Amino acid sequence: MRGVYLIFAFLILIDNLYANDELNSIRDAIKREGLNWVAGETDIFRLPLEERRRYLMKEPPRVDFESTKVLKIKPLAQYPSRLDYRDYLGYNWMTPVKDQGSCGSCWAFSTIGSLEAIIKLYKSDPYMDLDLSEQELISCTVLGSCSYGGSQLFAGYYIKSNGITDEECFPYIAQEGDCKNRCQNPKVREYIKDTGMLGTLSIASEEDIKTGLIKYGPIPTSMEVYSDFYAYKGGVYQRTSSGTYQGWHAIVFVGWDDSKDAWLCKNSWGENFGENGYFWIKKGDSKIGWGTEYIIYRDDLKPRLCSDQPEIDLKIDLSKSTREDFEFELFNCGSWVFEWSGSTVDAYVQILDRSGVAIKNPSKVRGYVEASTLSSGTYTSYINIKADAAENSPLMIPVRITVTKGAVEDGGYDITPSDAVYDVVDIYDAGTGGEEVYPDSYSDITISEDYKDVFSPEETLDAGLVDSQSEDIQRMPEDTGSLNDATLDIKIAIDKGGGEGKRDEDSGGCGCTLIE
Q1: Rounded to the nearest 5 degrees, what angle is found at the Cα of 349, between the Cα atoms of 345 and 352?
Q2: Of 177, 264, 417, 445, which has the maximum CB count within 10 A?
Q3: Catalytic annotation present for 106
Q4: What is the pTM of this model?
Q5: Does some domain include residue 395?
Q6: Domain range for residue 397?
Protein backbone atom coordinates (compact mmCIF):
# COMPACT_ATOMS: atom_id res chain seq x y z
CA MET A 1 0.00 0.00 0.00
CA ARG A 2 2.85 2.33 0.81
CA GLY A 3 4.22 1.74 -2.67
CA VAL A 4 0.90 2.83 -4.22
CA TYR A 5 1.01 6.11 -2.30
CA LEU A 6 4.56 6.72 -3.45
CA ILE A 7 3.64 6.13 -7.08
CA PHE A 8 0.64 8.45 -6.76
CA ALA A 9 2.77 11.16 -5.18
CA PHE A 10 5.36 10.73 -7.93
CA LEU A 11 2.73 11.16 -10.65
CA ILE A 12 1.44 14.35 -8.99
CA LEU A 13 5.01 15.66 -8.85
CA ILE A 14 5.53 14.89 -12.53
CA ASP A 15 2.24 16.64 -13.42
CA ASN A 16 3.24 19.70 -11.41
CA LEU A 17 6.64 19.82 -13.04
CA TYR A 18 5.03 19.51 -16.45
CA ALA A 19 2.46 22.23 -15.62
CA ASN A 20 5.19 24.56 -14.39
CA ASP A 21 7.21 23.96 -17.53
CA GLU A 22 4.13 24.52 -19.70
CA LEU A 23 3.22 27.71 -17.89
CA ASN A 24 6.77 29.06 -18.14
CA SER A 25 6.77 28.24 -21.83
CA ILE A 26 3.52 30.14 -22.37
CA ARG A 27 4.80 33.14 -20.42
CA ASP A 28 8.00 33.17 -22.45
CA ALA A 29 6.01 33.07 -25.70
CA ILE A 30 3.77 35.96 -24.58
CA LYS A 31 6.81 38.05 -23.74
CA ARG A 32 8.71 37.11 -26.85
CA GLU A 33 5.80 37.85 -29.19
CA GLY A 34 4.82 41.09 -27.43
CA LEU A 35 1.30 39.96 -26.53
CA ASN A 36 -0.80 41.73 -23.94
CA TRP A 37 -2.19 39.09 -21.65
CA VAL A 38 -1.26 37.25 -18.46
CA ALA A 39 -0.88 33.48 -18.08
CA GLY A 40 -1.30 31.71 -14.74
CA GLU A 41 -2.77 28.70 -13.02
CA THR A 42 -6.51 28.24 -13.41
CA ASP A 43 -8.75 25.37 -12.32
CA ILE A 44 -8.86 23.93 -15.81
CA PHE A 45 -5.13 24.45 -16.42
CA ARG A 46 -4.33 22.26 -13.39
CA LEU A 47 -6.15 19.31 -15.01
CA PRO A 48 -4.40 16.73 -17.18
CA LEU A 49 -4.54 17.52 -20.88
CA GLU A 50 -7.25 14.92 -21.67
CA GLU A 51 -9.44 16.21 -18.84
CA ARG A 52 -9.18 19.72 -20.20
CA ARG A 53 -10.45 18.60 -23.59
CA ARG A 54 -13.66 17.31 -22.04
CA TYR A 55 -14.69 20.95 -21.57
CA LEU A 56 -14.65 21.44 -25.35
CA MET A 57 -16.55 20.33 -28.44
CA LYS A 58 -14.80 18.24 -31.05
CA GLU A 59 -16.35 20.22 -33.93
CA PRO A 60 -17.79 23.69 -34.56
CA PRO A 61 -21.44 24.12 -33.51
CA ARG A 62 -23.72 22.30 -35.91
CA VAL A 63 -25.71 24.32 -38.43
CA ASP A 64 -28.40 23.24 -40.90
CA PHE A 65 -27.05 25.00 -43.95
CA GLU A 66 -30.26 24.52 -45.96
CA SER A 67 -32.91 25.69 -43.49
CA THR A 68 -31.07 27.96 -41.07
CA LYS A 69 -32.36 31.52 -41.02
CA VAL A 70 -29.61 34.11 -41.51
CA LEU A 71 -30.51 37.60 -40.32
CA LYS A 72 -29.07 40.55 -42.22
CA ILE A 73 -29.42 43.62 -40.03
CA LYS A 74 -28.68 47.16 -41.10
CA PRO A 75 -25.48 48.54 -39.55
CA LEU A 76 -25.82 51.53 -37.27
CA ALA A 77 -24.58 54.94 -38.34
CA GLN A 78 -22.38 55.11 -35.25
CA TYR A 79 -21.27 52.70 -32.53
CA PRO A 80 -20.05 53.45 -29.03
CA SER A 81 -16.35 52.81 -28.52
CA ARG A 82 -17.12 50.47 -25.63
CA LEU A 83 -19.98 48.24 -24.49
CA ASP A 84 -20.11 45.95 -21.45
CA TYR A 85 -23.34 44.36 -20.24
CA ARG A 86 -21.80 43.87 -16.82
CA ASP A 87 -22.05 47.65 -16.50
CA TYR A 88 -24.63 48.75 -19.03
CA LEU A 89 -26.23 52.10 -18.07
CA GLY A 90 -24.98 51.52 -14.55
CA TYR A 91 -26.38 48.01 -14.03
CA ASN A 92 -25.09 44.43 -14.32
CA TRP A 93 -27.41 42.46 -16.60
CA MET A 94 -25.41 39.22 -16.58
CA THR A 95 -26.19 36.23 -14.39
CA PRO A 96 -23.41 34.60 -12.30
CA VAL A 97 -20.63 32.67 -14.02
CA LYS A 98 -21.15 28.90 -13.89
CA ASP A 99 -18.84 25.88 -14.18
CA GLN A 100 -19.76 23.27 -16.77
CA GLY A 101 -17.33 20.70 -15.36
CA SER A 102 -15.81 17.95 -17.47
CA CYS A 103 -18.67 17.80 -19.96
CA GLY A 104 -18.69 19.27 -23.44
CA SER A 105 -21.86 21.22 -22.66
CA CYS A 106 -20.49 24.70 -23.38
CA TRP A 107 -23.09 25.10 -26.14
CA ALA A 108 -25.87 24.79 -23.53
CA PHE A 109 -24.16 27.29 -21.19
CA SER A 110 -23.63 29.69 -24.08
CA THR A 111 -27.33 29.56 -25.00
CA ILE A 112 -28.60 29.87 -21.42
CA GLY A 113 -26.05 32.54 -20.47
CA SER A 114 -27.25 34.68 -23.35
CA LEU A 115 -30.97 34.04 -22.78
CA GLU A 116 -30.81 34.83 -19.04
CA ALA A 117 -29.27 38.25 -19.75
CA ILE A 118 -31.73 38.97 -22.57
CA ILE A 119 -34.70 38.20 -20.30
CA LYS A 120 -33.38 40.55 -17.60
CA LEU A 121 -32.89 43.28 -20.17
CA TYR A 122 -36.28 42.70 -21.80
CA LYS A 123 -38.06 42.83 -18.45
CA SER A 124 -35.99 45.88 -17.50
CA ASP A 125 -35.02 44.28 -14.19
CA PRO A 126 -31.29 44.03 -13.42
CA TYR A 127 -32.06 42.56 -9.97
CA MET A 128 -34.09 39.65 -11.35
CA ASP A 129 -33.07 36.31 -9.85
CA LEU A 130 -32.97 33.98 -12.86
CA ASP A 131 -31.26 30.61 -13.20
CA LEU A 132 -32.37 28.44 -16.14
CA SER A 133 -31.55 24.78 -16.67
CA GLU A 134 -28.65 23.79 -18.92
CA GLN A 135 -29.32 20.18 -17.99
CA GLU A 136 -32.66 20.17 -19.83
CA LEU A 137 -30.90 21.07 -23.06
CA ILE A 138 -28.33 18.30 -22.55
CA SER A 139 -30.84 15.61 -21.54
CA CYS A 140 -33.83 16.49 -23.71
CA THR A 141 -32.38 17.55 -27.10
CA VAL A 142 -31.43 14.93 -29.67
CA LEU A 143 -28.51 16.83 -31.18
CA GLY A 144 -26.56 17.67 -28.02
CA SER A 145 -24.43 15.74 -25.56
CA CYS A 146 -21.43 15.90 -23.22
CA SER A 147 -19.31 13.72 -25.47
CA TYR A 148 -19.70 15.42 -28.84
CA GLY A 149 -20.97 18.83 -27.94
CA GLY A 150 -23.95 20.47 -29.58
CA SER A 151 -25.29 23.64 -31.15
CA GLN A 152 -26.61 26.88 -29.68
CA LEU A 153 -28.84 27.17 -32.75
CA PHE A 154 -30.53 23.81 -32.14
CA ALA A 155 -30.79 24.63 -28.44
CA GLY A 156 -32.63 27.80 -29.47
CA TYR A 157 -35.00 25.80 -31.65
CA TYR A 158 -35.77 23.55 -28.68
CA ILE A 159 -36.55 26.51 -26.38
CA LYS A 160 -38.74 28.09 -29.05
CA SER A 161 -40.86 24.91 -29.31
CA ASN A 162 -40.71 23.45 -25.79
CA GLY A 163 -39.60 26.21 -23.48
CA ILE A 164 -36.92 25.83 -20.81
CA THR A 165 -37.29 25.12 -17.09
CA ASP A 166 -35.34 26.60 -14.22
CA GLU A 167 -32.33 25.10 -12.45
CA GLU A 168 -34.40 23.99 -9.47
CA CYS A 169 -36.59 21.86 -11.73
CA PHE A 170 -33.67 20.18 -13.52
CA PRO A 171 -30.29 20.67 -11.73
CA TYR A 172 -27.03 20.37 -13.63
CA ILE A 173 -25.13 17.08 -13.19
CA ALA A 174 -22.40 17.44 -15.88
CA GLN A 175 -23.67 14.23 -17.50
CA GLU A 176 -26.13 13.53 -20.26
CA GLY A 177 -28.84 12.14 -17.96
CA ASP A 178 -32.47 11.32 -18.77
CA CYS A 179 -35.09 13.89 -19.77
CA LYS A 180 -37.59 12.08 -17.48
CA ASN A 181 -35.70 13.49 -14.48
CA ARG A 182 -37.08 16.92 -15.18
CA CYS A 183 -39.74 18.02 -12.66
CA GLN A 184 -43.37 17.99 -13.75
CA ASN A 185 -44.41 21.43 -12.52
CA PRO A 186 -41.55 23.89 -12.94
CA LYS A 187 -41.85 27.33 -11.35
CA VAL A 188 -40.31 28.93 -14.45
CA ARG A 189 -40.72 27.97 -18.07
CA GLU A 190 -39.40 30.46 -20.59
CA TYR A 191 -39.97 30.47 -24.35
CA ILE A 192 -38.38 32.52 -27.11
CA LYS A 193 -39.97 34.01 -30.19
CA ASP A 194 -37.21 33.43 -32.74
CA THR A 195 -33.56 32.55 -33.27
CA GLY A 196 -31.12 32.27 -36.15
CA MET A 197 -27.64 33.06 -37.35
CA LEU A 198 -26.36 36.60 -37.35
CA GLY A 199 -24.99 37.82 -40.67
CA THR A 200 -23.48 34.57 -41.93
CA LEU A 201 -23.23 30.84 -41.36
CA SER A 202 -19.55 31.12 -40.50
CA ILE A 203 -17.74 34.04 -38.80
CA ALA A 204 -19.88 37.13 -38.26
CA SER A 205 -18.44 40.51 -39.21
CA GLU A 206 -17.52 43.13 -36.63
CA GLU A 207 -20.49 45.28 -37.65
CA ASP A 208 -22.89 42.33 -37.38
CA ILE A 209 -21.61 41.46 -33.91
CA LYS A 210 -21.78 45.05 -32.64
CA THR A 211 -25.24 45.64 -34.11
CA GLY A 212 -26.46 42.33 -32.69
CA LEU A 213 -25.13 43.16 -29.22
CA ILE A 214 -26.89 46.54 -29.22
CA LYS A 215 -30.14 45.31 -30.74
CA TYR A 216 -30.52 41.92 -29.01
CA GLY A 217 -28.19 41.96 -25.98
CA PRO A 218 -25.51 39.34 -25.13
CA ILE A 219 -25.40 36.75 -27.93
CA PRO A 220 -24.06 33.18 -28.25
CA THR A 221 -20.91 32.60 -30.29
CA SER A 222 -17.98 30.17 -30.63
CA MET A 223 -14.20 30.04 -31.08
CA GLU A 224 -11.29 27.69 -31.52
CA VAL A 225 -9.32 26.82 -28.38
CA TYR A 226 -5.54 26.46 -28.26
CA SER A 227 -3.53 24.95 -25.43
CA ASP A 228 -2.33 28.28 -24.03
CA PHE A 229 -5.91 29.53 -23.56
CA TYR A 230 -6.38 27.24 -20.51
CA ALA A 231 -3.87 29.43 -18.65
CA TYR A 232 -5.56 32.79 -19.38
CA LYS A 233 -5.72 35.03 -16.28
CA GLY A 234 -6.29 38.50 -17.71
CA GLY A 235 -5.58 41.01 -20.48
CA VAL A 236 -6.44 40.61 -24.18
CA TYR A 237 -5.91 37.02 -25.27
CA GLN A 238 -4.09 36.16 -28.48
CA ARG A 239 -2.90 32.66 -29.22
CA THR A 240 0.86 32.18 -29.08
CA SER A 241 2.73 30.60 -31.93
CA SER A 242 3.45 27.60 -29.72
CA GLY A 243 -0.18 26.98 -28.74
CA THR A 244 -1.65 23.76 -30.11
CA TYR A 245 -5.22 23.26 -31.36
CA GLN A 246 -7.56 21.63 -28.79
CA GLY A 247 -11.12 21.89 -30.10
CA TRP A 248 -14.11 24.26 -30.20
CA HIS A 249 -15.71 26.20 -27.40
CA ALA A 250 -19.05 28.06 -27.14
CA ILE A 251 -19.21 31.28 -25.13
CA VAL A 252 -21.28 34.49 -24.89
CA PHE A 253 -20.46 37.82 -26.50
CA VAL A 254 -20.92 40.42 -23.74
CA GLY A 255 -19.37 43.55 -25.29
CA TRP A 256 -16.32 45.14 -26.83
CA ASP A 257 -13.65 47.79 -26.31
CA ASP A 258 -12.25 49.47 -29.41
CA SER A 259 -9.27 50.84 -27.49
CA LYS A 260 -8.26 47.22 -26.82
CA ASP A 261 -9.41 46.03 -30.25
CA ALA A 262 -11.07 43.21 -28.35
CA TRP A 263 -14.33 41.39 -27.64
CA LEU A 264 -15.53 40.70 -24.09
CA CYS A 265 -16.88 37.18 -23.51
CA LYS A 266 -18.48 35.20 -20.69
CA ASN A 267 -17.04 31.72 -20.15
CA SER A 268 -18.39 28.66 -18.33
CA TRP A 269 -15.20 27.42 -16.59
CA GLY A 270 -15.92 28.95 -13.18
CA GLU A 271 -14.89 32.27 -11.67
CA ASN A 272 -11.27 31.16 -11.23
CA PHE A 273 -10.73 31.37 -14.97
CA GLY A 274 -9.67 34.68 -16.50
CA GLU A 275 -11.14 37.88 -15.07
CA ASN A 276 -13.71 36.42 -12.68
CA GLY A 277 -14.95 34.03 -15.35
CA TYR A 278 -14.77 36.52 -18.27
CA PHE A 279 -12.08 37.07 -20.87
CA TRP A 280 -11.03 39.58 -23.52
CA ILE A 281 -9.98 38.25 -26.91
CA LYS A 282 -8.49 40.18 -29.79
CA LYS A 283 -10.93 40.70 -32.67
CA GLY A 284 -10.36 38.07 -35.35
CA ASP A 285 -8.23 35.78 -33.16
CA SER A 286 -8.99 32.04 -32.86
CA LYS A 287 -11.95 32.32 -35.26
CA ILE A 288 -13.92 34.17 -32.60
CA GLY A 289 -17.43 34.95 -33.89
CA TRP A 290 -18.04 31.61 -35.57
CA GLY A 291 -21.74 30.69 -35.60
CA THR A 292 -22.85 33.88 -33.85
CA GLU A 293 -26.55 33.62 -33.06
CA TYR A 294 -29.33 36.09 -32.31
CA ILE A 295 -32.18 35.41 -29.88
CA ILE A 296 -35.49 37.32 -29.82
CA TYR A 297 -37.09 36.68 -26.46
CA ARG A 298 -40.79 37.55 -26.74
CA ASP A 299 -41.39 40.47 -29.04
CA ASP A 300 -39.78 43.52 -30.51
CA LEU A 301 -38.47 45.92 -27.88
CA LYS A 302 -41.05 48.47 -26.68
CA PRO A 303 -39.57 50.64 -23.94
CA ARG A 304 -42.04 53.08 -22.36
CA LEU A 305 -41.59 56.00 -19.98
CA CYS A 306 -43.99 56.02 -17.03
CA SER A 307 -44.47 58.12 -13.90
CA ASP A 308 -46.20 57.33 -10.63
CA GLN A 309 -47.80 60.81 -10.68
CA PRO A 310 -49.71 62.05 -13.76
CA GLU A 311 -49.51 65.57 -12.30
CA ILE A 312 -48.08 67.44 -9.32
CA ASP A 313 -50.27 69.73 -7.18
CA LEU A 314 -48.63 72.26 -4.84
CA LYS A 315 -49.92 75.02 -2.53
CA ILE A 316 -47.52 77.77 -1.49
CA ASP A 317 -48.25 80.39 1.20
CA LEU A 318 -45.79 83.22 0.56
CA SER A 319 -46.17 84.46 4.15
CA LYS A 320 -44.52 81.23 5.29
CA SER A 321 -42.13 80.17 2.50
CA THR A 322 -41.47 80.87 -1.15
CA ARG A 323 -40.15 77.37 -1.92
CA GLU A 324 -41.96 74.03 -2.05
CA ASP A 325 -40.14 70.73 -2.75
CA PHE A 326 -41.62 67.77 -4.60
CA GLU A 327 -40.59 64.38 -5.96
CA PHE A 328 -42.00 61.77 -8.30
CA GLU A 329 -40.90 58.38 -9.65
CA LEU A 330 -39.91 57.43 -13.19
CA PHE A 331 -39.71 53.88 -14.47
CA ASN A 332 -39.91 51.76 -17.60
CA CYS A 333 -43.31 50.09 -17.96
CA GLY A 334 -42.29 48.49 -21.27
CA SER A 335 -39.34 46.33 -22.30
CA TRP A 336 -35.55 46.77 -22.34
CA VAL A 337 -33.74 49.65 -20.62
CA PHE A 338 -32.95 53.20 -21.70
CA GLU A 339 -31.65 56.59 -20.59
CA TRP A 340 -33.88 59.63 -20.09
CA SER A 341 -33.30 63.39 -19.78
CA GLY A 342 -35.52 66.01 -18.16
CA SER A 343 -36.19 69.74 -18.52
CA THR A 344 -38.67 72.34 -17.27
CA VAL A 345 -40.74 74.96 -19.08
CA ASP A 346 -40.61 77.82 -16.56
CA ALA A 347 -37.70 79.08 -14.48
CA TYR A 348 -39.66 78.92 -11.23
CA VAL A 349 -39.95 75.11 -11.59
CA GLN A 350 -36.67 73.19 -11.33
CA ILE A 351 -35.76 69.49 -11.18
CA LEU A 352 -32.56 68.42 -9.46
CA ASP A 353 -32.28 65.10 -11.35
CA ARG A 354 -32.07 65.94 -15.05
CA SER A 355 -31.01 62.55 -16.42
CA GLY A 356 -31.08 58.91 -15.44
CA VAL A 357 -31.89 55.35 -16.44
CA ALA A 358 -35.43 53.99 -16.72
CA ILE A 359 -35.76 50.40 -15.50
CA LYS A 360 -38.62 48.43 -13.99
CA ASN A 361 -37.73 49.57 -10.46
CA PRO A 362 -38.71 53.26 -10.15
CA SER A 363 -36.09 55.93 -9.55
CA LYS A 364 -36.97 59.13 -7.69
CA VAL A 365 -36.76 62.53 -9.38
CA ARG A 366 -36.58 65.51 -7.02
CA GLY A 367 -37.48 69.11 -7.72
CA TYR A 368 -38.83 72.34 -6.29
CA VAL A 369 -40.91 75.44 -7.06
CA GLU A 370 -39.43 78.86 -6.22
CA ALA A 371 -42.43 81.22 -6.03
CA SER A 372 -40.69 84.44 -4.90
CA THR A 373 -41.41 86.06 -8.30
CA LEU A 374 -45.04 84.92 -8.39
CA SER A 375 -48.15 86.81 -7.26
CA SER A 376 -51.21 85.26 -5.66
CA GLY A 377 -53.02 83.06 -8.12
CA THR A 378 -52.88 79.70 -9.89
CA TYR A 379 -50.19 78.57 -12.33
CA THR A 380 -49.57 75.50 -14.51
CA SER A 381 -46.08 74.58 -15.69
CA TYR A 382 -44.66 71.36 -17.18
CA ILE A 383 -41.77 68.94 -16.66
CA ASN A 384 -40.64 67.28 -19.90
CA ILE A 385 -39.01 63.82 -19.70
CA LYS A 386 -37.74 62.38 -22.96
CA ALA A 387 -35.76 59.39 -24.21
CA ASP A 388 -34.79 58.50 -27.74
CA ALA A 389 -35.69 54.84 -27.18
CA ALA A 390 -39.08 55.33 -25.51
CA GLU A 391 -42.17 55.04 -27.68
CA ASN A 392 -44.23 57.58 -25.72
CA SER A 393 -41.44 60.14 -25.38
CA PRO A 394 -41.61 62.92 -24.35
CA LEU A 395 -43.56 62.45 -21.13
CA MET A 396 -45.11 65.74 -19.93
CA ILE A 397 -45.96 66.06 -16.23
CA PRO A 398 -48.10 69.12 -15.30
CA VAL A 399 -47.13 71.08 -12.18
CA ARG A 400 -50.17 72.94 -10.83
CA ILE A 401 -49.35 75.66 -8.29
CA THR A 402 -51.69 77.69 -6.06
CA VAL A 403 -49.98 80.77 -4.55
CA THR A 404 -51.43 82.72 -1.60
CA LYS A 405 -50.09 85.45 0.72
CA GLY A 406 -51.63 84.47 4.06
CA ALA A 407 -54.75 85.81 5.90
CA VAL A 408 -55.75 89.57 5.75
CA GLU A 409 -54.71 91.47 8.91
CA ASP A 410 -57.43 92.87 11.29
CA GLY A 411 -57.89 96.64 10.66
CA GLY A 412 -60.18 97.58 13.61
CA TYR A 413 -63.40 96.63 15.39
CA ASP A 414 -65.98 94.50 13.63
CA ILE A 415 -69.53 94.83 14.86
CA THR A 416 -71.54 91.67 14.55
CA PRO A 417 -74.96 90.59 15.86
CA SER A 418 -73.24 88.59 18.60
CA ASP A 419 -71.47 91.63 20.11
CA ALA A 420 -72.63 92.43 23.64
CA VAL A 421 -72.87 96.14 22.84
CA TYR A 422 -76.29 95.61 21.28
CA ASP A 423 -77.66 94.60 24.66
CA VAL A 424 -77.18 98.13 26.04
CA VAL A 425 -77.57 100.53 23.10
CA ASP A 426 -80.38 102.04 21.10
CA ILE A 427 -79.85 102.92 17.50
CA TYR A 428 -81.55 106.06 16.22
CA ASP A 429 -81.75 107.71 12.88
CA ALA A 430 -80.52 111.26 13.41
CA GLY A 431 -82.97 112.49 10.85
CA THR A 432 -86.14 110.54 11.80
CA GLY A 433 -87.13 112.30 14.97
CA GLY A 434 -85.96 109.58 17.30
CA GLU A 435 -87.59 106.57 15.64
CA GLU A 436 -85.75 103.31 16.23
CA VAL A 437 -84.08 101.74 13.21
CA TYR A 438 -82.53 98.23 13.28
CA PRO A 439 -80.18 97.41 10.46
CA ASP A 440 -79.62 94.02 8.85
CA SER A 441 -76.26 95.19 7.58
CA TYR A 442 -73.61 96.99 9.60
CA SER A 443 -71.11 97.90 6.95
CA ASP A 444 -71.91 101.64 7.15
CA ILE A 445 -71.90 101.98 10.93
CA THR A 446 -69.57 104.68 12.26
CA ILE A 447 -68.33 104.35 15.83
CA SER A 448 -68.62 107.80 17.46
CA GLU A 449 -66.23 109.31 19.96
CA ASP A 450 -68.94 109.03 22.64
CA TYR A 451 -68.92 105.25 22.16
CA LYS A 452 -65.18 105.17 22.63
CA ASP A 453 -65.32 107.36 25.77
CA VAL A 454 -68.02 105.32 27.49
CA PHE A 455 -66.01 102.15 27.13
CA SER A 456 -62.66 103.71 27.89
CA PRO A 457 -60.94 101.90 30.76
CA GLU A 458 -60.02 105.33 32.16
CA GLU A 459 -63.74 106.24 32.79
CA THR A 460 -65.56 105.04 35.93
CA LEU A 461 -69.33 104.33 36.03
CA ASP A 462 -71.53 104.65 39.11
CA ALA A 463 -72.87 101.14 39.63
CA GLY A 464 -75.83 102.37 41.59
CA LEU A 465 -76.76 104.88 38.89
CA VAL A 466 -76.70 102.18 36.26
CA ASP A 467 -78.97 99.99 38.33
CA SER A 468 -81.47 102.82 38.91
CA GLN A 469 -81.77 103.46 35.21
CA SER A 470 -81.85 99.82 34.10
CA GLU A 471 -85.52 99.96 33.37
CA ASP A 472 -84.87 102.61 30.71
CA ILE A 473 -82.24 100.53 28.91
CA GLN A 474 -83.80 98.86 25.89
CA ARG A 475 -82.46 95.57 24.50
CA MET A 476 -82.14 95.17 20.71
CA PRO A 477 -84.83 92.87 19.33
CA GLU A 478 -83.86 89.72 17.44
CA ASP A 479 -85.49 90.94 14.25
CA THR A 480 -83.32 93.95 13.44
CA GLY A 481 -85.22 95.07 10.39
CA SER A 482 -83.39 96.99 7.71
CA LEU A 483 -81.01 99.94 7.63
CA ASN A 484 -82.05 103.12 5.83
CA ASP A 485 -79.67 105.36 3.94
CA ALA A 486 -79.35 107.95 6.70
CA THR A 487 -76.11 108.20 8.62
CA LEU A 488 -76.36 106.49 11.97
CA ASP A 489 -74.86 107.77 15.17
CA ILE A 490 -74.53 105.47 18.12
CA LYS A 491 -75.01 107.34 21.36
CA ILE A 492 -75.29 106.15 24.90
CA ALA A 493 -76.68 108.66 27.42
CA ILE A 494 -76.93 107.95 31.12
CA ASP A 495 -78.86 110.51 33.23
CA LYS A 496 -76.81 111.58 36.21
CA GLY A 497 -79.26 114.06 37.75
CA GLY A 498 -80.02 116.57 34.98
CA GLY A 499 -78.08 118.12 32.11
CA GLU A 500 -78.82 118.89 28.49
CA GLY A 501 -77.74 115.71 26.84
CA LYS A 502 -74.08 116.64 26.43
CA ARG A 503 -70.97 115.58 28.21
CA ASP A 504 -69.87 117.67 31.20
CA GLU A 505 -66.38 118.66 30.15
CA ASP A 506 -65.52 119.84 33.67
CA SER A 507 -66.51 116.70 35.53
CA GLY A 508 -64.31 113.70 35.90
CA GLY A 509 -67.16 111.39 35.04
CA CYS A 510 -69.97 111.45 32.53
CA GLY A 511 -72.89 113.82 32.90
CA CYS A 512 -75.31 112.70 30.20
CA THR A 513 -79.06 112.25 29.83
CA LEU A 514 -80.69 109.15 28.41
CA ILE A 515 -82.49 110.19 25.25
CA GLU A 516 -86.13 109.19 25.21
Answers
A1: 105
A2: 264
A3: yes
A4: 0.74
A5: yes
A6: 305-404
